[in-house]
Amino acid sequence: MRIDIITVVPELLESPLSHSIVGRAIKKGLVEIHIHHLRKYGIGSRQSVDDYSYGGDAGMVLMVEPVYRMIEELRAERTYDEIIYMSPDGEIFDQGIANELSLKENIILLCGHYKGIDERIREHLVTREISVGNFVVSGGEIPAALVADAIIRLLPGALSDETSALSDSFQEGLVAPPVYTRPAEFNGWKVPDVLLSGNPKLIRAWQDEEALRRTRERRPELLK
């Protein structure tokens, strides 16, 4: 898989996407991540990538030309399955979308900044728009890092135990059940006996029951 990320602040992405599971996946050759500085195609001597919006609203807007030229350069080299704009009003990102995108070969993640991007980019270049929640952050870089991380950890070989991702929250429409590790007792707090029983059938039944209970208590909307 290859993920190209277009941004005006590449520094926000370099560290989150070079460590832990993502960093190991890159070293294994499971994924390539290329971070592109939009100012490469900035306009004029200052390499401007933004300008005031028509209509006089407050806030700067990313211009259409630099984004167009960068995407065209990338598309000249390969075909992209998706060109995704990270936007507050996009479809809400969830585990199902992460599963879907993990099967793609080439993806562009376009990070907005300032007030957003020229609408013509969204109309003519973007194939999908994704939001990480009903709130606004300073730019699309952190949301792009979240999306990339969620996708990459699903790639075969990214996790030391590939079955681990199958038991993550939301994979079966429920949140994950509680988990415990050693010691079996600490400060009078005990691990449930069933988890120490060594009986896979009983353990699985307990996990299913706990996942349902926890979902009902904490995220009841998932049961709809």
Q: Would you mind describing this structure in some detail?
A:
The protein has helices at residues 11-14, 20-27, 64-75, 95-101, 119-124, 141-152, 200-218, and strands spanning 2-7, 32-37, 50-52, 60-62, 82-92, 106-111, 128-131, 185-186, 189-190. By secondary structure, it is an alpha/beta fold. It has 2 domains: 2-152, Alpha/beta knot, CATH 3.40.1280.10; 169-223, tRNA(m1g37)methyltransferase, domain 2 (Trp Operon Repressor, Chain A). It starts with a strand and ends in a 6-residue tail after the last helix. The mean pLDDT is 94.
Task: Summarize the entry for a quick read.
The protein is α/β, with parallel strands linked by helices and 224 residues long.
Task: Record the SSE blueprint.
Layout: E1 2-7, H1 11-14, H2 20-27, E2 32-37, E3 50-52, E4 60-62, H3 64-75, E5 82-92, H4 95-101, E6 106-111, H5 119-124, E7 128-131, H6 141-152, E8 185-186, E9 189-190, H7 200-218
E-strand count: 9
Determine the mean pLDDT. Answer: 94
Q: CATH homologous superfamily of the largest domain, by name?
A: SPOUT methyltransferase, trefoil knot domain
Quaternary state reads single chain
CATH class of the largest domain: Alpha Beta
Number of helices: 7
Relevant terms:
7 helices; Alpha/beta knot; two-stranded antiparallel sheet; alpha/beta; 2 domains; 224 residues
